[in-house]
Amino acid sequence: MAALPQLARRWHRIGAALIAIPFLVVIVSGLFLQMKKEWSWIQPPTQSGVLAEPSLGFEQILAAVQAVPEAEVQAWEDVDRLDVRPTRGIVKVRCSNGIEVQLDLSSGEVLQIATRRSDFFENLHDGSWFHPLAKLGVFLPTGIVVLFLWLSGVYLWWLPGSLRRQKRKKREATKQP
Q1: Domain with CATH 3.10.450 in the chain
Q2: In this structure, which long-range contacts are made by residues 94-101, counting pairs with CB atoms below 8 Å and at least 24 apart in sequence?
Q3: pTM of the prediction?
Q4: How many other C-beta atoms lie within 10 A of the C-beta of residue 177?
Q5: Which one of 37, 46, 72, 132 has the fewest beta carbons within 10 angstroms of its own beta carbon?
Q6: What is the pLDDT along the chain (177 residues), one digit of tens a residue?
Q7: Which contiguous run of DSSP H or E holds residue 6?
Q8: What three-state secondary structure class fits 155?
């Protein structure tokens, strides 16, 4: 039984050393992602437009975003995605350069222009920012090792109490006539 705790400690130390840097990236980027709705530097707050039937077409959306110099949009290829929020009366246009333009869905009025950094932190968090293979080749194994560290840590925390209980039971059994 003594070999298992020694093995758990050894593998716990080795595992922690192997994943120290990728796990630090996951923790720090995760903290930023936790704060994305609270900190407009990470993700621009969602504005509200006129709550009417959405009447803006795709060509009008493109034209409105092309009129924003910071967006650097010439064609649809410069647009990463559209996030339509009909209940808020807006469409968020995420441009390929990291700029987010929020438009009123009924008038096409530009409500906000801001840098959106949450996508960067999401890519950093899952490892895809480094290289496409890093996501599955480094960050997935890091998650598996963290799971092992958690399990071995719980075992190493539980073990001393278990040993004390066993010794106490043994002492009590020898005291009784």
Answers
A1: 44-116
A2: 94/119, 95/65, 95/71, 96/72, 97/71, 97/72, 99/68, 99/70, 99/71, 99/72, 100/44, 101/64, 101/65, 101/68, 101/71
A3: 0.69
A4: 2
A5: 132
A6: 558 778 878 888 888 888 889 999 999 999 999 999 888 888 888 888 877 778 889 999 999 999 999 999 999 999 999 999 998 999 999 999 999 999 999 889 999 999 999 889 999 999 999 998 999 999 999 999 999 888 888 888 888 888 888 888 888 888 766
A7: helix 3-34
A8: helix
Edge-to-edge strand ranges of the sheet holding 99-104: 79-85, 90-95, 99-104, 110-115
CATH number of 44-116: 3.10.450
Task: Give the residues across from 94 on adjacent strands.
Answer: 81, 100
Element (H, E) at 24: helix 3-34
User: How does 124-160 read in b/e, with b if 16+ C-beta sit within 10 Å?
Assistant: bbbbebbeeebeeebbeebeebbeebeebeeeeeeee
